[in-house]
Amino acid sequence: MDERMEEKVEDADMDQEGLTNEVYFSEDDTVIKIYPRYPLTSFYATAIDFLAFNFRYLDREERMSNEVEVKDEIKAAGLDTPEIISMSENMIEFERVEGISGYQYLNSCSAAEAYRLGEEVGSFLPRLHSRGVALKDFRVSNMIVGDKVTLIDHEYSGLNANKVLKWFDYFTLLSSVRQTPRYQEFKRGFCQRALIPKSAICLSLISSLAHSVLLERSLSRVKNSFLSVRTDFASRVNNIVRD
Fold first, then answer.
1. Which of 85, 164, 78 is nearest to 126 (CA)?
2. Rounded Cα gap, residues 118 and 186, in angstroms
3. What's the whole-model pTM score?
4. Phi and psi dihedrals of 173, rounded to 5?
5. Is the predicted pLDDT of residue 238 greater than 80, yes or no?
6. Burial 211-241 (b: 16+ CB within 10 A, else e)
7. What is the tens place of the pLDDT at every residue in 164-188?
8. Given a cut of 70, is residue 44 above it in pLDDT?
């Protein structure tokens, strides 16, 4: 940790919502992210790689390199990323992007706004996949919604990704959106632009509950996950009756 960034971190406010990495908001209106050697999420990403027959562990250097390399791919596919201001051995300083997290947005927006966000994300993801890139940790909390949609925390991204890694993007996205009250509207908008694998829809029923209980420990997230299961089940029954 170099002295300049160490001083910034000492005077900065820590983000209390992060799950594994330490993130600080500096007085210079920047965001400093510290990359530990063995964060908890790295083992989740390794498990995904294992299931995709991609046997590797992303060390800190590779994860930080991903933050740099994937930026251009994300922008080319239609969404934005924060600019990198400086880097050190275990930290990256980013510009601070105005807006709120995708999770917060889907907890406060209208049905029409959730639908439009779903459309935008649904247009983006197939384009990103066509460029051979999978994000693997494509949670709605890793979006900042303001004047435009900005993606953050893409350190676990995979270049030259196979179909399994791309499938996990749909799976992790749906798992996180289920934990919001606007799951149905977001999904309808998304499906206007992209086809969601049915297996991702089914398995995300379980994973959203597990994530909200074990990791987030949030009663509101658990409630929304249960509601998403109920509405999906009701929709499935209605389709069977119509057929």
1. 78
2. 4
3. 0.88
4. -60, -50
5. no
6. bbeeebeeeebbebbeebbeebeeeeeeeee
7. 999 999 999 999 999 999 999 999 9
8. no
Q: Which two tokens stand for residue 50?
A: 């294992």
- Bridge partners, 86 (sequence order): 93
pLDDT tens across 70-105, in order? 999 999 999 999 999 999 988 999 999 999 999 999
- Contact call for residues 156 and 45 (beta carbons, < 8 A): yes
Token representation of residue 221? 């997230």
Domains, in order of start, for the chain: 3-95 (3.30.200), 100-242 (1.10.510.10)
Residue 151, judged by CB atoms within 10 A of its CB (0-12, 13-18, 19+), counts as buried
Tell me the backbone φ, ψ of residue 87, rounded to 5 degrees: -140, 150
Q: What would the 3-class secondary structure string for 127-162 be? A: HHHHCCEECCCCCHHHEEECCCEEECCCCCCEECCC
- Cβ atoms of 118 and 149 closer than 8 Å: no
Residue 69 CA to residue 97 CA, distance in Å, equals 19
